[in-house]
Design brief:
Elements (H helix, E strand, L loop, with lengths): L1 E6 L2 E4 L4 E9 L4 E9 L6 E7 L4 E3 L7 E6 L4 E6 L8 E9 L3 E4 L3 E6 L1
Parallel strand pairs: 2-11
Antiparallel strand pairs: 1-3, 3-8, 4-5, 4-9, 5-6, 7-8, 9-10, 9-11
Length: 116
Amino acid sequence: QVQLEESGGGLVHSGGSLRLSCAASGSIFSINYMAWYRQAPGKQRELVATITNAGGTNYAGSIKGRFFISRDNAKNTVYLQMNSLKPEDTAVYYCYLNSDRYGGTWGQGTQVTVSS
């Protein structure tokens, strides 16, 4: 099995920055990609950013140019650098890992709150 542990959430003023981390552990084989999703109160979970094993990235339009996803393969860790945060970025942010062996694995989520 794969376990994901997120960290780095918190409360920040509008315009501020946060960096989320997600460390993967356990039976990590054949990772296809890792991603960050978010879910705001009363809304569906939405994709924020993805990064493939080769380092290719993709971003949701609403955060493009403000958020940046990266990964440290040696540490099996993915990061989400969030800049110029807005109140509408307030959500629970979830880490996601997709692998050939175990399919999809979710983290427990970390709260990000942006005050106006």
